[in-house]
Specification:
Blueprint (H helix, E strand, L loop, with lengths): L1 E8 L6 E8 L5 E8 L3 E8 L6 E4 L2 H12 L3 E4 L2 E5 L2 H9 L3 H9 L1
Antiparallel strand pairs: 1-2, 3-4, 4-5, 6-7
Helix pairs in contact: 1-2
């Protein structure tokens, strides 16, 4: 969804005024691909039209794999997950430690 303006007329005075309404439109999007030390690969998608929306896409599994590697814990990785881990309780603790606050922190970088 995007916003556009349209000219409307006041039925009593006849004066025109701008009116903002929501509609669909094909807009340009700009992608920025990043590699974060804690979260691994991620991208930010910006819309090139008002209201200039942004979307950050990251993968929690990549975060977990990065944290296991930093801690020196052996694991067998899948494309999008972990198959096995030498310390399953630490793996669970790392997964539980991925909070909205940590995601917010990486977005605000």
């Amino acid at each position: 969804m995007t916003c556009r303006t349209q000219k409307r007329r006041n039925p009593e005075t006849g004066k025109s005024y701008p009116w903002i309404y929501r509609t669909t439109a094909l807009v340009n999007h700009y992608y920025f691909y990043l590699i974060d030390d804690d979260f691994g690969p991620l991208f930010i998608k910006f819309a090139g039209y008002f209201p200039y929306q942004a979307k950050v896409c990251l993968n929690g599994h990549e975060y977990v794999k990065r944290q296991l590697t930093k801690a020196g814990i052996a694991f067998q990785a899948l494309d999008n997950g972990v198959l096995s881990c030498a310390e399953p309780k630490r793996l669970q603790a790392i997964c539980a430690a991925l909070t909205p606050q940590k995601i917010d922190r990486v977005v605000r970088k």
